[in-house]
Specification:
Strand content: 15-25%
Radius of gyration: 27 Å
Helix content: 40-55%
Structural class: alpha/beta
Distance between the termini: 54 Å
Order of helices and strands: EEEHEHHEEHEEHEHHHHHEHEHEHEE
Number of helices: 13
Largest sheet: 5 strands, mixed
Length: 428
């Protein structure tokens, strides 16, 4: 790259991969003043003729003066949208336009497209939650209260799916402690006061613990830490998802670590709900803080991009992905189950193809035969697919396995599957 004399390059100026744009920084070593900018690149390389885009007379004068030694550094690589957003955030962080340490005359407001995570603020909040849970701070109130109060409460959802075996272990440990006349050792549920979209309390952390407690007949109360509304409202949903994921990482009581499907869900949620590009540096940092390796992060990004590209392609053709966990859609799904259950010799229930359960099926059959005194002959499973990958796995593996299992071990029952659509025209 051809540049004026007296510029020291920091790091490799080639983008790793076929990236669209960069954020760069010049530093004048004579007076320590800096200039931050973004620029579109060609096939990962800067054009030879490009220097900077500053119109600041002071910067132009200092840059032209060869007695001033400058350093040049590429801060990050990514899509043009992501890099312009990052440029804006970096400048806002230091209020560059009003900062004598920067040449920038604006904070690049035109690059602002979405808000990402204020990591230092979030980490301080996480540290305070941990301190309160450990009894090292009284910043937030903790009180023991009936577990039933927390059943059905909305939550900051970061898990792709529950971990049933882990929940059973929690229940067992709670029961064991109570049998010994000991107070079960549980991290408190973390509750955000009035933080849901309908101004109700929202659970930030502790869903696994709560499910374990709900599964215990002996457990009555659970500890709950309440975050006041004025503090809870300071954080965006993107930041709350980050915080919830970091809390899941805790190697502490009753925690199941995040897996890659949770990471993929996060990336997709950030993209669709907050407009955050997949390759945004905040996503990388979030996944690192959640405990993922660089290799795992690469895999998560690849899967998320594949999902988004296919979904967006269908969206553009006037198709929308059907999320059957949305209340309106779930109501329709339950109505279909009820319709099947109206048939005397049939029992029906709905399941995700990503989370099938023989226990649920058998409980449904047993309850119907015991309570209704009906001989069940048919089992109708209403199946919804959370992703295309699960749908493909269902067709090739799970469905044939379940059919064989019923034929071999439960020959008195005929199993059927009612698969719900994954896509609908926009008009529907």
């Amino acid at each position: 790259m051809t540049r004026r004399k007296g510029i020291t390059t920091i790091g490799d100026i080639r983008a790793p991969g076929d990236h669209e744009a960069i954020v760069y920084k010049f530093t004048n070593l004579t007076n320590s003043k800096k200039y931050i900018g973004s620029h579109k690149v060609k096939k990962g390389f800067l054009e030879d003729t490009y220097q900077h885009s500053s119109t600041n007379p002071e910067f132009l004068k200092d840059f032209a003066d060869l007695s001033n030694e400058f350093t040049y550094e590429i801060v990050s690589y990514g899509t043009l949208k992501t890099m312009r957003n990052l440029e804006h955030e970096l400048l806002v962080e230091v209020d560059a336009r009003n900062n004598d340490d920067y040449y920038n005359r604006s904070n690049a407001e035109t690059g602002k497209s979405y808000k990402t995570i204020r990591f230092s603020k979030c980490r301080a909040f996480i540290a305070e939650i941990k301190a309160v849970a450990a009894g090292e701070s009284d910043q937030f109130e903790i009180r023991w209260e009936p577990k039933s109060l927390h059943r059905g409460m909305g939550k900051v959802q970061v898990r792709y799916k529950e971990v049933p075996d882990h929940i059973k272990n929690i229940t067992s440990e709670i029961d064991d402690a109570i049998a010994k006349r000991e107070t079960p050792k549980m991290n408190p549920l973390v509750i955000l006061e009035n933080r849901s979209s309908d101004n109700k309390d929202l659970r930030l952390d502790g869903s696994m613990t709560l499910n374990g407690a709900l599964g215990s007949e002996k457990c009555v109360d659970v500890p709950a830490m309440y975050i006041p509304e004025d503090i809870a409202s300071e954080y965006t949903m993107t930041e709350l998802r980050y915080i919830a994921g970091v809390l899941n990482k805790r190697a502490d009581v009753f925690k199941a670590p995040n897996d890659k499907s949770d990471g993929q869900k996060l990336i997709q949620d950030n993209y669709y709900e907050d407009g955050i590009e997949v390759d945004d540096p905040s996503n990388v940092q979030t996944l690192k803080d959640w405990g993922f390796t660089t290799r795992e992060i690469t895999s998560i990004f690849k899967k998320a991009l594949h999902y988004i590209s296919k979904k967006d392609a269908l969206d553009k053709r006037g198709m929308l992905f059907v999320d059957w966990t949305v209340p309106e859609n779930e109501k329709e799904m339950k109505a279909r189950v009820d319709e099947w259950n109206s048939t005397k010799e049939t029992v029906s229930l709905f399941m995700s193809s990503g989370k099938t359960s023989l226990d649920r099926i058998w409980h449904k059959i047993d309850t119907r035969e015991e309570v209704k005194q009906v001989t069940v002959k048919n089992v109708m499973i209403v199946i919804h697919h959370p992703t295309e990958d699960y749908q493909k796995s269902w067709v090739s593996n799970t469905k044939p396995k379940w059919t064989r299992m019923f034929e071999k071990f439960m020959p008195h029952y005929k199993i059927h599957f009612d698969e719900l659509t994954m896509w609908r025209p926009t008009g529907e």
